[in-house]
Amino acid sequence: xxxxxxxxxxxxxxxxxxIGKRIxxxxxxxxxxxxxxxxxxxxxxxEGQEIKDIGRKGKYLLIYLENDVIIxxxxxxxxxxxxxxxxxxxxxxxxxxxxxxxIDKKNKHVHLVFLLDDNRVLMYDDxxxxxxxxxxxxxxxxxxxxxxxxxxxxxxxxxxxSYLFERLQKLKVTIKQALLNQxxxxxxxxxxxxxxxxxxxxxxxKEANKISLKKCQVILDNAKIVLNKAIELGGSTIRSYHFANxxxxxxxxxxxxxxxxxxECKFCGSKINKIKVGGRGTHYxxxxxx
Length: 290
Known about the structure:
- By secondary structure, the chain is an alpha+beta fold.
- The chain is 23% helix and 21% strand.
- It folds into 2 domains: 4-140, Alpha-Beta Barrel (N-terminal domain of MutM-like DNA repair proteins); 161-284, Helicase, Ruva Protein, domain 3 (Orthogonal Bundle).
């Protein structure tokens, strides 16, 4: 699943592709990708608008148009491809093509297509079809769902230990579940919560309301270290997840616990455990995290 560093990587790629391009036509192939309005309304509103900027809030991509903002949540497998409008030519080595009503086997998971004014297409690809797109007016971006309740980003200097401590005191869940709550703190997903808790020497099953103020500061410090390093390395390419047109991250090579069940801890040599916490696969070191 793409988390903050992966989404930031996608944002940077899209920025190089799309700034200044105009959306000529929108093809909503799988209607459920569009939230909050009909696919026809979505397409009608964005057609003709120029792409002004690509932003991000937490794990949400923000595609700024002249009047509106497309909010794209990639969920489990969402990704973008840049291709060409028209039918594939014989012996052509280009990776992606799109033609109306023609999706070849290579592009069978393409569910939304934007035709740009340079005759290229931006394709949204999603194997599981979990991703969603909202369209809101610029002035309402942070006043309406889904961004109006999103918490401060985990690697932001605006997030204080005292604020985290105060919020955790009111929760009766594990610290792992608390840090996954995007209203409490945004940008941390399953991979990076495991890594932050490992560096903080906190067992993921520890009750959130028993985390001290001092440990809250440690959590925030390590969240910055982990997320900023992951952004620097382009995020983590885990199993089949690739961000966009083959762009891969390298942070998976830096992981201490996530995906390393039964392997030796890089710090103490103990075997990494994998358990379920709140229904999520969770990795930790039983010696380092007590």
